[in-house]
Amino acid sequence: MILVTGGAGFIGANFVLDWLAQSDEAVLNLDKLTYAGNQENLASLHGDARHVFVQGDIGDQELVARLLAEHQPRAILNFAAESHVDRSIHGPEDFMQTNIMGTFRLLEVVRAYWQDMKVEARSAFRFLHVSTDEVYGSLVQGDPAFSERHQYEPNSPYSASKAASDHLVRAWHHTYGLPVLTTNCSNNYGPYHFPEKLIPLMIVNALAGKPLPVYGDGMQVRDWLYVKDHCSAIRRVLEAGQPGEVYNVGGWNEKPNIDIVHTVCTLLDELRPRLDGKSYREQITYVKDRPGHDRRYAIDAGKIERELGWKPAETFESGIRKTVQWYLDNPDWVAHVQSGAYREWVQANYAERV
Ligand code: NAD
Ligand code: DAU
Hints:
With 354 residues, this protein is of the alpha/beta class. It has a domain at 2-189 and 225-252 and 293-313: NAD(P)-binding Rossmann-like Domain (Rossmann fold), CATH 3.40.50. The protein has helices at 10-22, 61-71, 85-90, 93-115, 119-124, 157-176, 198-207, 227-240, 257-271, 302-308, 316-329, 331-337, 340-350; strands at 2-5, 27-31, 51-55, 75-78, 126-132, 180-185, 187-189, 212-215, 221-226, 246-249, 254-256, 284-287. The strands form three sheets. It has a seven-stranded parallel beta sheet, sandwiched between helices. Helix 1 links the parallel strand 1 and strand 2 (27-31). Helix 7 runs parallel beside helix 9 (257-271). The longest helix is centred in the N-terminal third of the chain and has 23 residues, at 93-115. The protein is globular, with a radius of gyration of 20 Å. The relative contact order is 0.13. Bound molecules: nicotinamide-adenine-dinucleotide (NAD) and 2'deoxy-thymidine-5'-diphospho-alpha-D-glucose. The site of nicotinamide-adenine-dinucleotide has 31 residues, from helix 1, strand 2, helix 4, strand 5 and strand 7.
């Protein structure tokens, strides 16, 4: 079996669902169930013996050691993290605990497990660390996209903590020989995306008749990838990636935020028109910018394409249409994630921006 950490979150849950749709190899899913973890994302696996869910922290070494001894996974995929930049600005502590100390503690337990493995299992074992393009910092218009050789220049508490975790993973390979793989991916979107992030926030706010808060001038550029393409890239890296190597993953899909918001509005105008006949664009509101806001990310995904033959299957147009439709088809999921804690976060992040 494989061990997935953070498999109740947005990308982790999509990964587990896709994995089990394509393979009978079981998944042990270790997730702390923070505000971002949601077992409803995995509801379709209820009663499926191939999925074993354990609520717990990647930093709990006793628990992780016991799980490894009991289930003997052949690979570990580390998705678990605090992932939201705005939350890292409001409160960086959890980011340092999970993304840095959690990764360190996990690496140490995994190292002990791997060192005790029989020779054959040991050489086939992999630790795949899921990371982000934000570790490379910010580009200006005209700069070439981030390659794997771009220097690390993280600018937010979130990206600094992810950069630290990448360095730990690298060091555990160079020093101890742990067979690690690292992926650095651009912005994902798709089903089960928690509505604190740009695309799902715009969809749920639009439908609720609320303002669509665009930070600053809305001209910051992100490189968008449909989440299922990220999952297929991770499967491919696990299957064929070279230990110690880093693979950038992206959709060759750079877009300014305001274009993303306009696209969401246009799709909603078509699929669920406003009762007053006006466009959802009427709800767009420019608000105070994110402190230290990175201007542009762009991923050069040439290495993973050349060396491992991976390419995204979705265009932005097909992926965003599927995503908007998914939110329209899943109002109960949306209602359940908008708990009291969610409303408190919205209040904390947006009240001061108006
Ligand atoms: P998410 O916030 O939706 O989910 C994170 C999951 O990790 C949650 O289920 C949470 O409960 C769990 N978790 C948090 N702390 C934990 C801990 N200490 N122990 C065990 N579980 C814990 O995040 P996501 O968007 O799914 O991102 C997954 C990974 O991919 C992260 O490492 C993130 O940095 C990376 N990434 C995300 C994106 C993106 O666009 N969302 C892009 C590139 C890379
Ligand atoms: O690049 C990969 C990263 O993408 C991941 O590592 C992170 O985990 C993930 O959260 C995401 O980070 P971003 O900060 O780019 O995503 P977010 O959805 O928060 O914001 C996308 C852009 O939209 C960013 O420029 C900020 C802007 N924005 C965001 C929100 C929530 C707004 O204009 N208004 C908003 O309300």
